[in-house]
Amino acid sequence: MSEINEFIADLVNHFSLSTVTDRSWFGIASVFGYFHPLTLFGLSFILQKRN
Q1: DSSP characters over 5-20
Q2: How far apart are CA 34 and CA 39, in angstroms?
Q3: Closest CA to 18 of 7, 30, 27, 9
Q4: Which one, of 33, 11, 29, lies nearest residue 20 by Cα?
Q5: In this structure, is the dihedral angle defined by the CA atoms of residues 35, 41, 43 and 45, taken in order, positive or negative?
Q6: Contacts of 42 (CB under 8 A, 6+ apart)
Q7: What burial class does residue 32 get, using C-beta atoms within 10 Å of its C-beta: 0-12 exposed, 13-18 middle, 19+ buried?
Q8: What is the DSSP letter of 24?
Q9: Which of 42, 44, 49 is nearest to 11 (CA)?
Q10: Beta carbons within 8 Å of 31's beta carbon, 6+ residues apart
Q11: What is the pLDDT of residues 15-47, one digit of tens each?
């Protein structure tokens, strides 16, 4: 679990607010579209490890 937290912290540190605000709505949607499957995959992996 700590590895996932460190990975997310690294992503947040490199993903500044200025890069989001300088983009269009399509650019923001494409960034979130990239992270959404990764988040779902991580959650499913964590839930499988629990069981």
Answers
A1: HHHHHHHHHHS-HHHH
A2: 9
A3: 27
A4: 29
A5: negative
A6: 4
A7: exposed
A8: -
A9: 42
A10: 20, 23
A11: 666 565 666 777 778 888 888 998 999 999 999
Predicted local confidence at residue 44, as pLDDT:
93
User: Which residue matches tokens 């989001």?
Assistant: 20
- How are the residues of the chain apportioned to helix, strand and coil, as percentages rounded to the nearest 5? 85, 0, 15
CA pair distance 7, 28, nearest whole angstrom? 21
- Residue tagged 């679990």 (tokens): 1
Task: Yes or no: say if 15 and 23 are a contact pair by the CB < 8 Å rule.
Answer: no
Q: What is the pLDDT, as a whole number, of residue 17?
A: 60
